[in-house]
Protein: DMT family protein
Amino acid sequence: MKAFLTIGLLFLSNSFMVMAWYGHLKFSEWSWFNKLGLVAIVFVSWGIALFEYMFQVPANRIGFNQNGGPFTLIQLKVIQEVITLIVFAIFTLFVFKTESFRLNHLISFAFLILAVYFMFKK
Structure:
């Protein structure tokens, strides 16, 4: 149960992270957002990133084996990185619609899955 909760929270966290880091590139299509300066855009991104932390910190606390969770610190980090790339790929394909998946992308995802496999192998 803690494993699924941790992974779910990491997906939520990374959804906000991707929006905070890259969403402003899409928001620039909105006329009111285009009028903002860089400092204002940074603050908007920080506001979105606050929600990232609201999910990331609990995910790590719940999932960390020294707090009774199922994952080591290294495993948590690898899971988080893979989730980040999955969320980023989905975000890019559906929000920007300027990118396309190619064979090399699929191969790289296969290697990421292998990385997770080897991370959990005893």
About this structure: DSSP finds five helices and no strands in the chain. The helical segments are 2-27, 31-34, 38-63, 73-96, 103-120. The mean pLDDT is 90. Residues 2-120 form one domain.
